[in-house]
Amino acid sequence: MIEVKNLTKQFGPKTAVDDISFSVKKGEVLGFLGPNGAGKSTTMRMITGFIPPTVGEIKIDGLDALESPRQAKAKIGYLPENAPLYSDMAVTDFLAFCGEIRGIKGKELEEAVEKAIGMCFLEKVRNQNVDTLSKGFKHRTCLAQSILHDPDILILDEPTDGLDPNQKAEARALIRRMGEEKAIIFSTHILEEVDAVCSRAIIIDQGKVVADGTPEELRSKAEGAGDYKVTVHGASGSDIRSALEGLANVDSVIEIQSGGTSFKGIVRPKGSASAAEGIFGLCKDRGWSLEELGLEEGRLDLMFRQITMSETENKAA
Amino acid sequence: MNKSLRNVWIVYRRELCSHFDSSLAYVFIIVFLLLSVGLGFLFNRFLENDQASLEAFFMFHPWLFMVLAPAVGMRLWSDEHRTGTIELLLTMPIAVWEAIVGKFLAAFTVLAFAIVLTFPTVVTVQYLGDPDYGPIIASYVSSLLFAGVCLAITSMVSSMSRSLVAALVASVAICFLLILIGLPPTTDFFTSVMGGAFAEGLAELSILRHFIDMQRGVITLQNLYFYVAVIAFCLFTTSVIIRAKRA
Q: Nearest by CB to B247, which of A52, A84, A87?
């Protein structure tokens, strides 16, 4: 549905987005991650046609967005950062205005507004003026505007920003549900959202894509992913340690706590091999009791820091 | 309805509601009515002239619109930039020019409404004497066009800045400058420095010169063309600035 090729944006001498390519299919929720100022919003603004790219190609549902912007824009729902609204309008009037501009008329418009109000929980404030709304309601009003015309493509720039934990959960559930039949891109810097919502995530740093994959794939790139945490009783700590180090698939063993009759530590397997069977077999053979054997999944925040920090350092060096 | 016209109409309607929802439109209309009638009657001896003409009344219109049109129009694009709603508006399936024209026409309606509300002065002249309606109609047309020009300039300036005050001050300054180049002191000065041809050419660019021409009751195609061209130019420049600002 969304195809972006070699997208580049320069603001004067500064390159905000540097040769980004990716695509999003129907039924996919793509998470945009990255530090502040990485180029997430700029990329989204180019896809939605708000700013023209310096170089690159954007295809929306097969349409060239740069050649036929109006048709492309009609297929997209967009929630800009900070959720801007016309503050002098009532919520329903604002939504009706947005619907009309999108070409919805009469009874259909009424239904679309009602549906969006229901989906975004705006029932309580429907007749209130926008500038009297709290931040959460403002955000949801803008979200309602983006889904009003039931677009195939949704671009959401920090859709959960400024919401309280309950509203965050609601917004995530909404995005996940809509993601089943739409192509969605949403940006966030809350990593837990990636697990909660995304089917795929891209990490952008300094205008470049530095990682692309499912949340599981990204996690496995984190330092410590694939390691085993073990606690074994039945022999002296040093004996257990050397026995573990002697296993075929084990690369190294890091000690956490070692006593007279037990050992607690991290076992790092060689490459992507599994060391679980070896550890289990060893304990069985020697008659040791295996109290804990856990696989480290890898942590997204660690991976995020690893990737984005190292890039920054490279630039600085 | 044609799609473009429909979009212009939707933007126009929203903007017009927004003008009349805020107190600014009413303040503007009241101030304009008080000043235009008051200045005409008090300073130009409208009654003492003993003529059934509204020349004294219309004479002040350019000076009022020079300040009041920017006051009405300063929010046209500055507000969109400031609140970020421009991102919303321009990612909708709507062309930039449709938004520009819709917004311009809405603000122009406020100005036109104020001008129309001065009709009691016409009734007064009708009651007191037997006015020549030619110059009065021509004056109303020129007044409308003059207001339109000041508003188009404001639209252009407001698209450059997110600050309302900056948009207001800069627009008033430009309108004033375009009036100034048609005034005799300026023309005399340029005649002595640069020669008569230059001074005359410069004066032709003055938005006041054409206003005075039309006040005499003669609406020439040239005058109309001048005003319409200036409005079109300013609105076109607005679109260029909006595009350039995004790039």
A: A52
